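Lecture 7 notes: from sequence to structure.

We start with a single chain of 267 residues. Read the sequence below before looking at the structure.
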Amino acid sequence: MKTKLIIAIATLAIVIGLYGLLTEAPPATETQITEIVVEENKIKVWFLRNDVKRGQLVERSDFSIRQLPESEANALGIADESNMNFDKGSVYNRELTVQSAVFPEYITATNDLEYVELVLAENRVPFVIKVDPDVIIGGVISHGSYVDVLALASGGSKISFNSDELSQPKFKSISVSPVLIGVKVLTIQQGAMSGGRNNSDVTATVLVLELTRKQVAKLTVAKRIADLEVHKSIGSYNAADLTADAGDVLADYKAIKEFRANKISIN
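Now the structure, written as tokens:
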């Protein structure tokens, strides 16, 4: 009897164990949560590769470009991308250090009002002189060029005649001589103005020269007594190379040279 009871209990235990194995819940599957990372927009920012001074010419090699996250660019005060477009002769209007971010308003173009003040050297004066527009065409003279100013006169007065009058004696005393040599052009200004034939507009071209006060006085007098020609300075040469008179052009004209105290005058 006891044996049957033990067998029954053992059988029941085995059945319960098998049932437990068969009904065991499967292990819980871990749920993987993928975090979606939104990539931040990038903004192109211009930085200086070296220190620059106020009035210094802007060069393309001054800049390096970086793509910064929008948050970093915003911290620098930059909300949108800007292109650093500048004309030849443009200058910085403030002193900046290496690795500084550069904004378009830090650069002054040649046609801006403050440009002359930025590029004018110490103890120099800006002087405006009107020139033939042809000397500007093709870039013969540009911002920063050096020029010679020549005076063309006849008997100490301005010349006003046509080619048919060249044979008249009074025009055989024509001479040209340098007034200023190797002066710097700060900027070139061009614009339309009335005064042409039938009151039509003509293009006025002026150069702003960088002069000493003595040169200003000399050129002011020259403008009153002679016609002025402006030509680009090239190389090194003597003032005598820019001097000529009618005798150098007219084969049958011989000037009488009068020597006075190391000074030559043409009669």
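The domain at 42-115 is CATH 3.90.1210.10 (Type Iii Antifreeze Protein Isoform Hplc 12). Keep this in mind for problem set 3.
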